[in-house]
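User: Teach me something about this protein's shape.
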Amino acid sequence: MTREEFDARNAAWDQEYEYLTVSRRLDRLYAARSAGDTTVYLAQRIDRTERLLQAMLGFPEQLAG
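Assistant: First, the predicted structure itself:
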């Protein structure tokens, strides 16, 4: 394996790990909302996290929202 292939694999793994981390964070926020947390702060966190996840999936304009 060349250095470039190694770096590409590591970059792909890092992106997948970051996606999973943000996705799990969003799942916990949804669980808090389902448990009855209706605060504005939670709604804002959900909105920001959803926009971050969309940007990670290739829609960077979501971050401007």
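Now, about its shape. Helices lie at 3-34, 40-56. The CA atoms of residues 51 and 62 lie 5 Å apart. If you'd like, I can walk through any region in more detail.
User: That's plenty for now, thanks!
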